[in-house]
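agent> fetching stored inputs for the manganese (II) ion docking request
agent> found them:
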Amino acid sequence: MTDRGAPNILITNDDGIHAEGLFALKTALGALGTVYVVAPDRPRSASGHSITLHKPLRLSRVRLPDGSQGYATNGTPSDCVSLGVLDVVGGKVDLVVSGINWGPNLGWDLTYSGTVSAAMEAAIMGIAAFAVSVASYEEEISFDYAAGFSAHLARLLLTHKLARDTLLNVNVPNLPADRIPGIEITRQGRRRYTGKVEKRVDPMGRAYYWLGGDLPLDELEEGTDVRAIADNKVSVTPVHLDLTGYAALDELRTWGIEEFEPGSRRP
Ligand code: MN
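agent> prediction call returned; pasting tokens
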């Protein structure tokens, strides 16, 4: 928290400025500080950590359901964080929260996720951040629990210091509080999508493709995000920006990769 009084909180998402989860988040965080809303002008789910470099970005004012003002951009979730931090807030940003996403962000979902990538962008900028998702694709989503939990976590992040280059990835079951048995600090699990490409033929006889049609296969190891959600628990995973495969470093150094000499014909 800054010594200037109320903290500045920036929120964004990848489901777009009109998403119900974004507004639920804004409402829940309102008591903690000044909440700024900068979100994509349309759904950008699974846009990953993409940023917009080759066309101009625009910010347009949008009236939110409570009458307050937010900003929509033609950019990606990560662009929203840059625009929010560097332009809209116009001061120190104490916390960035991305969500509340409609749908899970578990296991291998993380690098595809626009929601999580926005929080990563904030972590790169050295700002405390978390992503929050309701881990269900059901039509009827309740954001109540996730919104309340987000306020709880936001309060903690404003008073504690998280390790450098680290953000939090939160997944909440789509259940009322009395059916959620607990909250677990987890590690990233494994979630694999099968039958990822569905090939069909259009009326002209040409092939077209749908990606990611099937339900994911989760490896339900104890202590992972996928396992916590399978057990109807809230999952909180610390995520590090460093993607280095440390376990492979020593082995890789024995392969001779560093001995390459341009022009040598050694087999
Ligand atoms: Mn989304």
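agent> quick read of the result: The domain at 8-190+218-259 is CATH 3.40.1210.10 (Stationary-phase Survival Protein Sure Homolog; Chain: A,).
agent> awaiting further instructions
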